[in-house]
Design goal:
Distance between the termini: 72 Å
Region (Disordered): 680-731
Number of strands: 8
Shape: globular
Protein name: Voltage-dependent L-type calcium channel subunit alpha
CATH architecture of the domain at 911-1056: Orthogonal Bundle
Number of helices: 41
Organism: Meloidogyne enterolobii
Transmembrane segments: 40-59, 79-100, 112-130, 164-189, 264-285, 297-319, 440-456, 476-496, 570-589, 647-669, 781-799, 819-840, 898-927, 1023-1050, 1093-1112
Membrane topology: Multi-pass membrane protein
Length: 1130
Amino acid sequence: MQSRKPLRQTPVERNERSLLCLTVQNPLRRACISITEWRPFEWLILMMICANCIALAVYQPYPMQDSDTKNTVLENLEYLFIVVFTAECIIKVIALGFLLHPGAYLRNAWNILDFIIVVIGIISTVLSRINVQAFDVKALRAFRVLRPLRLVSNVPSLQVVLNAILRAMIPLLHIAMLVLFVILIYAIIGLELFCGKLHSTCVDTSNGEFAQKEPSTCGLAPSAYHCEPSSFSSAIHARNNKWICSPNTTWLGPNNGITNFDNIGLAMLTVFQCVSLEGWTDVMYWVNDAVGREWPWIYFVTLVILGSFFVLNLVLGVLSGEFSKEREKANARGLFQKFREKQQLEEDLKGYLDWITQAEDIEQLNDDDEHGGDEHLVGGVGGGIGGDLDGDGVLDGEEQGVEGEEKQQRSSALIVQWRFLQRLNRRCRRGCRRMVKSQMFYWLVIVLVFLNTLVLTSEHYGQEPWLDHFQTGANLFFVILFTMEMLLKMYSLGLLQYMNSQFNRFDCFIVISSIIEFVLVYFEFMKPLGISVLRSARLLRIFKVTKYWASLSQLITSLLSSLRSIISLLLLLFLFIVIFALLGMQVFGGRFNYDPMRPKPRANFDTFTQSLLTVFQILTGEDWNTVMYNGIESYGGIGSLGMLVSIYFIVLFICGNYILLNVFLAIAVDNLAEADQVMNAKPGEEDEMEVEGEYEEGEYEHGETDEDGLDLEGDGEDGDDEVGGDGEEVNDEVVVGARPRRASHLTGQSKQKPIPKASSLFLLSHTNPFRLFCNRIINHSYFTNSVLICILVSSAMLAAEDPLQAQSYRNTILNYFDYFFTTIFTVEITLKVIVYGLVLHKGSFCRNAFNLLDILVVAVSLISFVLKSDAISVVKILRVLRVLRPLRAINRAKGLKHVVQCVIVAVKTIGNIMLVTFMLQFMFAIIGVQLFKGTFFSCNDPSRMTEMECRGEFITFEDGDPTKPVSMKRVWQRADFHFDNVMDAMISLFVVSTFEGWPDLLYVAINSNEEDRGPVYNARQPVAIFFIAFIVVIAFFMMNIFVGFVIVTFQNEGEREYENCELDKNQRKCIEFALKAKPHRRYIPRNRFQYRVWWFVTSQFFEYAIFIIIMLNTTTLALKHYPPGALILF
């Protein structure tokens, strides 16, 4: 078949003149244009960029700006990169022009970035060569780390994702202004309330010694932290009664004075830390200890709710909207591309038809000659058989005839045998194909995969030798079975058809790698670790069960459709991490050993690999504030310009955590919404899509027999009929229902619930006057609102009970109120049972789940009143169940009930996501067991490496002070979270997925050495890839799928009440606005003086003036600082 012709591309238009002097025909410019359009030149620049990135990564920063031979060579190599990139810039400027005309070099944003990097590189080089004093050339050289960004301009897939993010910058700028406004307001409030409050600690009045090893805040308020002897754990401190709470010059405050509200800069930094939810509770408790605990919690709780839960989540909404628009644009471009390809195919088909017509005419002219040639050929063949072939007459015609007959008989026998073998082979292949496509074979493979999973799960630390032998034999057994399965499928389906399925290609890779692993281990070429983790990849074969699980198959399809966008995003995220890691090395390399009395933090920027891990840790948000504190301290703390380096961490955290990582969630929401639309499509369309999807699977669907072909055709016809029928029904509905509706119908307001037709409690009919009277009572707004108020008040009184003194006077009073509210709730339920009936008929009271909750809460209260004894455990449990009382408000508040219903629907249908997440985490757990079992042990004496050596006692020094020796007993202990078996590995990985404390587990794994041996510093740095891969797959992607699924469910549930409405969401909002809109009335006074005042206060000038005054007032409030006479450094 002839290959498809490529679409014609329009030639690039060049400006007539470049740099005001070089025309298009100029030889120099033509040469530059040829170079820029030469593909090897682009590859050369990409190679130089990658080489520059490698050189920056290999660079080793040292303390006190020291250097070595390697760094000197790399600095000299920098000149080569500058020359190459400068030459590239000059060539492109000559080819494209500089600035003045369209299409010039600086008219492209990526070229502007390249130009800035080149200019800064030249300036920094010149300044370093002429030794300019009083100028930090190293700070200017830090811009070299932006060179990896040039990769984006040469990789189209990265440009797509980055352009989508850049398009969201304008709405994100509005959200950023809102976030800045919230942070500024709360910072000013904190400045007014807590300025100078976080500097007091408990000290000795005689010598100024701290009362605690780690000083903490204290205060003089009644509920603040007091310096009492009973508050100190040390016996020496408890005997001393001279501790007072006062400011101390040697203690700057929490985190060396970084966390406080002493000026607007530090206050905004502290507020931003609280908004990030990292360490905000510590700040709240420090403030409580300083000023009391009665009211500061209001400040921090409202800050977290408003700033973190609400405002920052608007970023997700913006990114999700932008990606939805990008998807629609991509779909439109795809349709247009298909239309162009269809036109081109029609042109090609027309040419083929013309060629076929001409060929038929030529064939008719040559028919007679062909028939004559055939007869002549037959005669010649016959004469050849009967006559002499040899001119010498050695063999006469009779002998030749006998020999020819014998040859014919032998050849015919071989042909018969060959045809028999072919028929036998076809029968065998047909039988094998039916077998491998049968459900029995399919479930047999699934059972084998599950058995293989059980064998892998049984591996654990300290297992018996017989289990080792069993696992080895079982592994060989499963390798043989899966190899036989692969060969059987290849034989029955054919190699090409077998490789059409992605699952088959994956199975082939796993089987071949397992065979290679077994051979290498058997001949002792390698240890049975390393490649053995590929065994765990077999567990992914469990996803084959999606063949007969439609909903799970739809989810897997949605996840796979997200991979394209996710891979591009991961490349951009990796580039982002590399740039900030290189920048961190330039700014903080060799500086985190600022305190000789403390060990250097593990999260540092001294090497490229460690810098990558530190940046990734900040991206996850775990202890990012601690790394920032260390960075500030490395530059002298708050007493110098060290606070300026916090900008690096803030920008990294905002761009990484709030923008790039939210793109994961935006992609998940977008793809889940698209998948949900497919699932909610018409049945015929859905069936057709499923059949087409199954046909493309290849392993089970390719090469189907006639039965499958009939199924495909039947499904397609049914789908067409159903689509057509649905279309006609929709059109009929539009014609019939195209009348204006009331606004109440559009807003979904429901009418009063009718009384069921059945009799209530077998006594009261639906026309009974007493039943109608009760119905009017329970549906009256006064009654409903009164019950809601009683629920809220009773819930508040439950919270006001004293749990420590059950017989207190306060609890006695609250008990009487509890009787009152229980009576009201009992009357309410009785009235509703009278109106709706109890349970037996449709619409009765107990047929509603929320009503069952009401009955449970009231029944618990009544039973607890009857059983008075608090000593009975059942009564205690029943009284605890009273905490369900606030849930009764759900049934009374429509919006809250809608939210709960959405959550219930999401929980019901979230099982597939939980299953996929569990299987992926289970696979990572098995890999973790194979990598880390028995390696998380350590001795508290670092000099002892084994359990046999970790005995006796050793001498250590308190706080690293040689004058304070302490004797301690050696203890061989295992880390709290470890991978010694699959269950503990699952728990450890769950902790990692929450981001809480995962760096500690990471560094324990990096230091892990061998089984039953103690840790060695950075013994296995490559194992960090395991944790990073797990976080990306589970925490970044699958956890966001949970959130995205809930968001999509909320959207669908919100639209469910309008599913029978012919109008879409935008049309409904337009009609609602038109019905609810009222003309805006403006009062214009008639008095001349009042009119002038009115004109002035409504003018734009007046609004701007008030805005300026507000800004000046805000600035004035922000100028407050502590101590009053000090200079504000931040």
